[in-house]
Amino acid sequence: MRLLGLLLFGAMAAFSQPFSAGIKAGVPFTDFVDTVSSGNVNYHSVPNRYIIGVAAEVHLPFGLGVELDALYRRLNYASTATATGVTTIVTSTATTANAWEFPLLVKYRFPGHIVRPFIDGGVAWDTLQGLKQSVQTSVVSGTPVIVSGSSPSELHKNTTTGFVLGAGLDVKAIVIHLKPEIRYTRWGAKHFLDPNSFLSSNQNQAEFLLGIQF
């Protein structure tokens, strides 16, 4: 009975801590995929220079906090392969996907009144949704054949996990908090891995994020 009472007290104390939520947006410093062009094969990515999402944080004593984010990025890459022989065959692909990232972080704020530097670290999960690939094959001077699918041959893992490190500032501006941050994520596995090494996911991810929380 005493143990149950302690657990209930602990849960009430945790949920009674200050809570903040808001939006988070930023720009990546690294591309989602690394591409290589060689001979008759050309891969290239179409970078989407934005990250957007929401964030929620529970503020704990002694400058500590726990933050959970849901961040969205758009993935877009294409390829062209040319095979020459009796006839010339050109195969073009266009791949798109929505990448959702969910970092769970422990944060420490250094003492301060208006501006408080902070560091954070934790784990993140990244999953691909709405993956689509369009393949167009055509013979020179012929009619192109277009096929669409959702399982590219270079897809290695639909979901991956990694660890996160970050540092930034918590700036109190009247009723909101502005939180610029530099964040680094190291993913444990690649989403994409082309057997011929023309395309692979970047396991090192760096970005600038700005949070606006109430």
What's the gist of this structure?
The protein has 214 residues and is mostly beta strands.
Write structural notes for this entry.
The chain is 7% helix and 66% strand. Residues 3-16 have low confidence and may be disordered. The strands form two sheets. An eight-stranded antiparallel barrel has the order 1-5-6-7-8-10-11-13. Strands 2-12 form a two-stranded antiparallel sheet. The relative contact order is 0.20. The longest helix is centred in the first third of the chain and has 14 residues, at 2-15. The chain has a domain at 15-75 and 100-128 and 157-213: Porin (Beta Barrel), CATH 2.40.160.20. It has one helix at 2-15; strands at 19-28, 33-35, 37-38, 41-45, 51-59, 64-84, 88-109, 115-139, 145-149, 159-173, 176-187, 199-201, 204-213.
Would you identify the CATH architecture of the domain at 15-75 and 100-128 and 157-213? Beta Barrel
- Beta strands, count: 13
**Terminal CA distance:** 38 Å
Oligomeric nature of the chains: single chain
Number of helices: 1
Q: Please state the CA-atom Rg, rounded to the nearest Å.
A: 23 Å
Question: Under CATH, the topology of the domain at 15-75 and 100-128 and 157-213 is which?
Answer: Porin
The average pLDDT value, as a whole number, equals: 87
What general outline do the C-alpha atoms trace?
elongated
Task: Show unreliable segments.
Answer: 3-16
Percentage of residues in DSSP E strands = over 45%
Q: Helical residue percent? A: under 10%
The helix/strand class is: mainly beta
Largest sheet: 8 strands, antiparallel, barrel
